[in-house]
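Researcher: Quick test of sequence recovery. Tokens follow.
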């Protein structure tokens, strides 16, 4: 059978496996950031702008365009699935080409057909592992992460053409590789370090230093303007805490003394992230779904004062130096080293900002996961095909089932946050208030008001300045006709945010339900003044009613003066 037919069979198998995994979950609900995108008209605004010089514009355009054309969430999920399959395809083709080159060097006496066969099998196994991996679900099954899918796809295409420039002596491919780098970077700014990762793979190919240097220099020169453009658009997040709720988390880290220093927050964040680099690798090797969730929390103080925190940092800093040294050995060793440098360089963006609100984000690891796959197939090249296939079958079955478990956890917003809450090692972990808050909102939608009040109370206990927690607890109390408690929470929410018109609107509802018509009019008028047009309807309704004195209907609440 011709080599290209093997590739067609392998790529068809990837389509079948990924489709069997993801298609049953097309009807999953909107979760997390998806809610903000699709529950308002903003998604249709994105459909009007295919491109500008800000990252993420084109991926969001595809979300909006698919919504306009198809009008369904399922249609957008099909697009995400197609992109995930394309990533697996390009990864397969890239692995096959890199493995063929590596095996030709490591096994110079092996028959060419045998080398091609081995490269095809190893590449297929690596691409399959990527396609059905449980952690890949957090990129492929999460609509808001269309940015990650495009960035990964274009990054792999950039590597493909960059590789071919050396393999087939095609200088024009360097330009194409730089173009795909630009597309990757404008899809997600986290791909900014890709050129350095690509350069490492050039060591697989023979050639004079001069020819290698010219191609590498041209590639870096072409990539530089795009990198500078994107960096300047995002420079405000470098060394800072750009996360919206980080201000509620950072004060809780009072026991880490360095946090009070000017650069202390960034230093602590970098130490944490350097250690997390190895945790990401561990979770991709052993995807323990008993721990994985959409919002993973860690005890920062425990990590900071642990014996292994700084050795991890040292190893993180020294490992690329060691790996670059072994690149000289060429062959499968160089492929392993190239894979490591790919994930190491792309991971560096995690150190660029202060990350405490979202310290460990599984969906971003989708971007540098191809590096893990390169390392995986390089190790597999040392194993006989027979034993590798025998081992791979049960491993892939387990991966498939674990990935289904993760997709099941994406079924609804409520299930996502219940899953995240169930994975918490401790109810008092820093940052867990967001999990309780979101689970409380899910309970509120399910009309499980008592459970919602309990979760909002936990949020308030951990982060007393989160006005949304008071507001939502007031909604739950109002639904239970606990008007005094609802009014108290609304007053606290209003003190924290005097510009939210919904707080005053709900305050009017509570007062009206309690018979405090005059006070309700004041609340509705304030809400209207803040821009809530619905408040006018309530004012008109109250004006049509027969004027009467305040009626004290509740035994636990008096009308405000």
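Model:
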């Amino acid at each position: 059978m011709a080599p290209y037919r093997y590739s067609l069979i392998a790529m068809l198998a990837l389509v079948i496996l990924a489709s069997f995994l993801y298609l049953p979950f097309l009807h999953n609900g909107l979760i997390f950031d998806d809610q903000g995108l699709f529950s308002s008209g903003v998604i249709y605004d994105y459909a009007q702008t295919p491109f500008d010089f800000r990252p993420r514009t084109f991926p969001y355009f595809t979300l909006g365009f698919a919504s306009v054309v198809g009008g369904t969430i399922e249609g957008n999920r099909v697009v995400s699935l197609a992109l995930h399959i394309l990533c697996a395809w390009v990864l397969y083709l890239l692995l096959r080409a890199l493995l063929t080159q590596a095996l030709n060097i490591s096994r110079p006496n092996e028959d060419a057909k045998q080398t091609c066969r081995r490269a095809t099998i190893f590449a297929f196994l690596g691409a399959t592992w990527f396609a059905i991996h449980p952690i890949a679900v957090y990129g492929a099954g999460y609509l808001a992460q269309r940015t990650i899918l495009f960035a990964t796809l274009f990054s792999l295409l950039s590597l493909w053409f960059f590789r071919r420039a050396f393999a087939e002596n095609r200088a024009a491919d360097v330009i194409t590789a730089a173009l795909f780098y630009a597309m990757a970077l404008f899809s997600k700014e986290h791909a900014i370090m890709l050129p350095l990762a690509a350069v490492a793979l050039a060591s697989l190919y023979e050639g004079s230093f001069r020819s290698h240097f010219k191609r590498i220099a041209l590639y870096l020169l072409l990539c530089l303007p795009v990198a500078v453009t994107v960096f300047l658009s995002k420079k405000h997040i470098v060394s800072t805490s750009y996360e919206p709720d980080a201000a509620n988390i950072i004060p809780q880290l009072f026991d880490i003394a360095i946090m009070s220093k000017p650069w202390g927050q960034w230093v602590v964040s970098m130490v944490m992230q350097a250690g997390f680099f190895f945790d990401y690798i561990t979770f991709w090797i052993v995807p323990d779904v008993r721990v994985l969730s959409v919002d993973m929390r860690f005890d920062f103080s425990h990590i900071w004062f642990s014996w292994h925190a700084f050795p991890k940092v040292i190893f993180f800093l020294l490992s690329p130096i060691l790996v670059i040294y072994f690149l000289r050995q060429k062959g499968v060793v160089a492929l392993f080293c190239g894979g490591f440098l790919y994930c190491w360089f792309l991971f560096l963006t995690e150190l660029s900002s202060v990350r405490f609100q979202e310290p460990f984000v599984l969906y971003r690891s989708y971007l540098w996961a191809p590096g893990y796959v390169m390392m995986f197939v390089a190790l597999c090249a040392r194993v006989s095909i027979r034993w590798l296939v025998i081992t791979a079958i049960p491993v892939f079955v387990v991966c498939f089932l674990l990935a289904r478990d993760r997709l099941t956890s994406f079924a609804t917003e409520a299930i996502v946050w219940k899953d995240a809450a169930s994975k918490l090692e401790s109810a008092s972990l820093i940052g867990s208030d967001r999990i309780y808050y979101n689970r409380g909102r899910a309970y509120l939608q399910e009309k499980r008001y008592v459970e919602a009040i309990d979760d909002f109370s936990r949020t308030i206990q951990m982060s007393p300045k989160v006005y949304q927690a008071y507001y939502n607890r007031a909604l739950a109390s109002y639904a239970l006709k606990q008007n005094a408690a609802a009014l108290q929470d609304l007053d606290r929410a209003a003190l924290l945010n005097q510009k939210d018109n919904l707080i005053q609107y709900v305050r009017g509802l509570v007062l009206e339900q309690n018979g405090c018509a005059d006070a309700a009019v004041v609340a509705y008028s304030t809400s209207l003044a803040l821009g809530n047009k619905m408040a006018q309807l309530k004012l008109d309704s109250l004006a049509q009613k027969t004027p009467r004195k305040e009626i004290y209907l509740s035994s636990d609440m008096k009308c405000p003066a």
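The two ends are 88 Å apart (CA to CA).
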